[in-house]
Amino acid sequence: MRNRLSIGHWISLCALNLVFCYLAGKDYNWDLLNYHFYGPALLLGNRWNQDYFAGSIQSYLNPIAYVPFYLMVKWGWPALLIGLILSAFHFLNVVIVGGIAEKLLSKQAEDSRALIYVICLLAMVAPPYLQANGSSFNDPFGSIFILLGLRVLVHGDSRIERQAVLVGFCSGIATGIKLTNAIFAIAFAVLFVARAVFERRVSFVSLVRQFGFYAVAAATAFLIVHGFWSVRLWQEFGSPVFPFFNAIFRAPEFSFVNNRDFRFLGSGLSGLFFLPFDMLRVQSWIYSEAVSPDVRPSALVLLAVAGTCLGLWRSRRLLKGSSQVSAHNTLSARQGAIWTPALTIVAFALVSFLLWGTTSRIGRYAFSLWLLVGPLLGLAAVHLGGMRFARITLGVVLSLQVYMHLVHGAYRWTPVAWESSWLNFQLPRAVTDQPAGIISTDTLSFSAIVPSLHPESGMATINGMHTVANGAEMPARLNSLIQRYNSNLYVLYAIGQFNASEKTQISVARLKILNEKLAPYGLKTEREPASTACEYGGLPFNRKIHSWSPEPSINEDYVFAFCKLAKTSSIEKDEAVKKSRANDGIFDLIEDKCPEVFAPKRVVTIHHNDEYVRSYFNTASGLYTDHGALYMTGYRVLFPTYLGQLNEILEKAKSTDFVCPSLPTHRYLAD
């Protein structure tokens, strides 16, 4: 058929997909070093009694989709081969998008292959897809099942119950892979209800039956993919999705709050409607942590508006040229077929976009939507001006997108050249040749080192995205880890990224800060002089990404300091705890007055350098003191907000006219 791509077309697209992966290089993204590589180690190594929040909050996300990547790295496969294998699987997204486009355009013209080919290319150049293609992220795997469920819906199968089962199974698998895919599961459920309402041919009993089939299939698939993990989390912590939704499950190892990421929500609901045009900006932190300019969504909005206006104009002319009776008969004749594949795709995209935009607005969480922009563009362009107009329009959009991303966009979050191995940690023998306890005190935990440690070693992160309770409230698991590795316990500090030829050591000032952070946990570095306090390791990599680049290779290292720890006296520990809580009364009052700005409440205060800091992982904001003044800060914010002097802020906050600071509208820096 002339509206389906040939095998040759698909081979060329797949080859181009692999080339994009090769040119992008491998990725040392934050999530990989924090929990992508750690999660499978926890699962396969049964490390529940050895580690405690090793990758901070994300430690206990279902790692099932990361297992293939983990095993290939552990087996020593070449990094490029791993990337190309992952890229080939990720390409299934493009294949399904092509199938959706074929279904949408099959009745528009005899030959729509050229347009479908361009639509597939538009999916491949979506910034989230380019950046994740061949990397460790699990978003492309979940997206495969979301798109597959949508393909089932547009197939037009008259057996609605069968559709409900298949779509439910797909959405359940996707949600099991990544919980944030639940927005798409909800969107599918809304579609079943909307279809029944609009078609007016399904009884309430039949609708309930469809919904039941969908719900049972989704729940079954979710249990298959996530059930084993939920059971283990329940056994360990008393919550099937620990530490998430803990206001509901109230597992004692975590705050009784529900996790919600507000980093991209500062612009409010109005910002969601301007987002397609904001995405044209060559800046990070618009909808993604990386620079991800995208012309496709704004082009879609403009085409949709133009198409809607044209449709209204045509309808008006049609009504003027015919009687109301004939118009009524025309509508009645079409009533049974109103729910078309086109309407299905449009409704799904709108509902999903609204759910995503009100819950997180994090680009990767809407991975499937960015791939659907191509079919939606094709649909809008064909409706507006026919097939020839659509080919030209989408060709122009594709060219603009390729240019924008080639010149300004990021290919990876943290791009690194392809080398023999994906991760090649070089760690001191003190933590590889014998069991050791590792305490991390940074937001980026570097728990990816765990598989390189001695198999009986353990790791905990006390100051990651969330700060573990200290003093008398220290969790039993953390106390147990400290006791278990008492004779060989180290604090891990990532000094930074340096040229491999430079010799780097921890500074005296940093060692002092580490000791201040550790003191409320009853720990301190064993030796004070910075020159002898620590042993060093690193993660070497080549910063040259493209083999054709004229720039010279730069060999660099992430440099780590492993500083031996000893216990403090109970008196020293109690004094450190008391000192760290000196300003908690003020912090608590501000939290209570401004719950939408500082959430969750009652996080643990970190004390160092005569400063007191609270970091709120939901709102990505913070309170800190500096030279007798109180400030609000935010992640990726240039300037803090001055709240007042400590000796005045208490009375100021108690007043009825106290004005809470606002969350940042944007969290980006110009690039």
Describe the structure.
The chain is α+β, with helices and mostly antiparallel strands and 671 residues long. The protein has helices spanning 7-24, 30-36, 38-45, 67-74, 79-90, 92-105, 113-124, 127-132, 139-153, 160-177, 182-199, 204-237, 246-249, 268-278, 296-320, 324-335, 341-359, 367-408, 429-432, 476-484, 508-518, 530-533, 570-580, 584-593, 646-654; strands at 26-27, 415-416, 437-440, 458-461, 489-499, 523-525, 534-542, 555-567, 606-608, 611-616, 621-626, 629-634, 641-645. α1 packs across α5 (79-90), α6 (92-105) packs parallel to α9 and α15 crosses α18 (367-408). It starts with 6 loop residues before the first helix and ends in a 17-residue tail after the last helix.
- Low-pLDDT residue intervals, each spanning 5 or more residues: 323-337
Number of strands: 13
Q: Could you report the average pLDDT, rounded to the nearest whole number?
A: 89
Strand content: 5-15%
Alpha-carbon distance between the termini?
47 Å
Number of helical regions: 25
Instruction: Give Rg in angstroms.
Output: 27 Å
Structural class: alpha+beta
Please describe the biggest sheet, giving its number of strands, its sense, and whether it closes into a barrel.
6 strands, mixed
Helix content class: 40-55%
The geometry reads as: globular
